[in-house]
Write a structure and sequence with these properties.
SH3 type barrels; elongated
């Protein structure tokens, strides 16, 4: 009887472990991309959800709280808690030269970050 119980536990463990993936090991200073899955209410004015970026960043890891929780260095414009689960981040991969999208530096006006528009392409 004990063999059947033990076999059922082993079978259940095998079935459960098939769905689990290995977690990346992060270090302080690593660059990661943050998922926009929970940021939709902040990005309402941007575009439709279908065209919205899946990940934003890169952001630097400030502190490792535990094996599955990290603290990020986020800009003040993103109004979420700095501590996030590793399921919401993805390791940043450098882009190929010539593919990089350069972000202009923000201009600080009355404590808020703003960007200067050089010209409007479509009317």
């Amino acid at each position: 009887m004990f063999e059947c119980v033990e076999n059922s536990f082993l079978l259940r463990a095998l079935i459960t472990d098939r769905k689990r993936a290995e977690v990346d090991e992060y270090k302080v200073g690593d660059l990661v991309m943050l998922s926009t899955k929970d940021l939709k209410y902040q990005m309402v004015r941007r575009r439709t959800e279908k065209l919205m970026e899946r990940f934003i960043g890169p952001y630097k890891i400030k502190k490792i709280v535990s094996s599955n929780i990290v603290e990020l260095e986020l800009p003040s414009t993103i109004k979420i808690h700095l501590v996030v689960n590793v399921s919401r981040i993805q390791r940043y991969i450098e882009q190929v030269e010539g593919q990089r999208k350069e972000q202009p530096a923000p201009v600080i006006i009355k404590g808020e970050e703003e960007w200067k528009v050089e010209k409007i392409l479509n009317k």
